[in-house]
Amino acid sequence: MIRANGVIGFQLATRFLKEGYKVFGTYRPRTKDDVSVAEVRWGRPQAMILTLRQLEGTGVQSIELVYANEESINAAAKGFAGEKLDILINCGAIYNT
């Protein structure tokens, strides 16, 4: 689950867990412990972002990932340690202001 610490990714990841799936979820380094990333921007609240501790508390196996960085993608891929990946759900996006 790409961006499992966002609202949509978190909901999907926890539902898959309840169904018995092994779930890997990514988070961006800047959101690791910083709840301030959910502060108001452009006059409206951003989507809720969970901290890494909140994500790990669900049973999701967390992997740090910056999806716009090839080195980060390669490092994250090593986090699967030979696990078979059946489904990839991308809840992340790049937003340019």
From TrEMBL:
* Xref: Gene3D superfamilies: NAD(P)-binding Rossmann-like Domain
Q: Which InterPro entries match?
A: NAD(P)-bd_dom_sf
Identification of the protein by name:
Uncharacterized protein
